Amino acid sequence: MKKVLTIAGSDSGGGAGIQADLKTMTVHQVYGAAVITALTAQNTLGVQAVEPVSKEFVAAQLDSVLSDINFAALKTGMLAQKEIVAVTAQKIAEYNLKNLVVDPVMVATSGDLLLEEAAVQSYKELLFPLADLITPNLMEAKVLAGIDKETQVEAEFLAKKLHAFGSKYVLIKGGHFSNPAQQSKKAVDLLYDGSNFVKFKADYIETNDTHGTGCTLSAAIASNLALAYSMEKAVEKAKVYLTKAIAAGEKIGKGNSPLNHIYQLDLKKESRQG
Ligand SMILES: Nc1ncnc2c1ncn2[C@@H]1O[C@H](COP(=O)(O)OP(=O)(O)O)[C@@H](O)[C@H]1O
Ligand SMILES: Cc1ncc(COP(=O)(O)O)c(N)n1
């Protein structure tokens, strides 16, 4: 079995962070391990508190798993602080890890801040040069490119700017656009490898129940890379997985419900009820 590592924060509500990553990996039939960078007291309504893990303890977890298990791919999610970004980059380089997907998590869907501002520079200098893929959403891409959040810019422009920080690929997520001819909205992600652009389009689902979409997408891409798919195929398959998991969502909690990973499993209906 292929092994995949997530280095990310814990979402006590189970919808995002390492919980979403491990569910996604399991459904992809890869073995998931998790190094926790921060605890969040979180539910579907928002993030009530954050407790970052010390950089020494993040390093200890990384040494434990990396000295023992051979990972075919890995992803980073919420890294919370610049010291955690730095130690993560240091260990990834030290152990010469391949197939790295960096999801530069800054803000939760609920609007709560998950990364200190001082860490943005560390991402660009230390982690992006090691990454096969970085997966910012539009807002994160603007922050990383040093562009005001209110400024309208093309995803292509952002992709080029971010590619200069040294990752092999950049995926700008979540440009939503309407196609007047078809009266349908599409959720579009743009992949750039330094010379070519590829667009991944899926139906935009009218819902606020999208807690964990970014985590799920990057975990699915890392799983697909571990399974030896090309980057393009890994993103394409991950997008299909994600869209189905949003569409199959059930109401969980009082706020923005998480995605449904279980529907993908071929289980008897009885075992899913209740
Ligand atoms: N309502 C939706 N319907 C379909 N796809 C969506 C929807 N919302 C987000 N996505 C997709 O989920 C992924 C994560 O995008 P986004 O929500 O922008 O990132 P993040 O979770 O990091 O903020 C992208 O592939 C995006 O196109
Ligand atoms: C621990 C943790 N990590 C990441 C996210 C972002 O999740 P989303 O995909 O909803 O933006 C989150 N809410 N909590």
Automatic annotation (TrEMBL):
Keyword Kinase among record annotations = yes
Please list the residue ranges annotated as the Pyridoxamine kinase/Phosphomethylpyrimidine kinase domain. 11-260
Q: Name one GO molecular function term.
A: phosphomethylpyrimidine kinase activity
Keywords from the UniProt entry: ATP-binding, Kinase, Nucleotide-binding, Thiamine biosynthesis, Transferase
Q: In which pathway does it act?
A: Cofactor biosynthesis; thiamine diphosphate biosynthesis; 4-amino-2-methyl-5-diphosphomethylpyrimidine from 5-amino-1-(5-phospho-D-ribosyl)imidazole: step 2/3; Cofactor biosynthesis; thiamine diphosphate biosynthesis; 4-amino-2-methyl-5-diphosphomethylpyrimidine from 5-amino-1-(5-phospho-D-ribosyl)imidazole: step 3/3
Pfam families assigned: Phos_pyr_kin
What's a BP term from Gene Ontology annotated to this protein? thiamine biosynthetic process
EC number(s) stated in the UniProt entry for this protein: 2.7.1.49, 2.7.4.7
Keyword Chloroplast in the entry? The reply is: no
So what does this thing catalyse?
4-amino-5-hydroxymethyl-2-methylpyrimidine + ATP = 4-amino-2-methyl-5-(phosphooxymethyl)pyrimidine + ADP + H(+); 4-amino-2-methyl-5-(phosphooxymethyl)pyrimidine + ATP = 4-amino-2-methyl-5-(diphosphooxymethyl)pyrimidine + ADP
- Give the first-level EC class, as a single word: transferase
Write out the GO cellular component annotations: cytosol
Classification via InterPro entries: HMP/HMP-P_kinase_dom, PM/HMP-P_kinase-1, Ribokinase-like
Q: Which PANTHER family match?
A: HYDROXYMETHYLPYRIMIDINE_PHOSPHOMETHYLPYRIMIDINE KINASE THI20-RELATED, PHOSPHOMETHYLPYRIMIDINE KINASE
Instruction: Give the UniProt family note.
Output: Belongs to the ThiD family.
Please state what the protein is called.
Answer: Hydroxymethylpyrimidine/phosphomethylpyrimidine kinase
The source organism is Halanaerobium polyolivorans
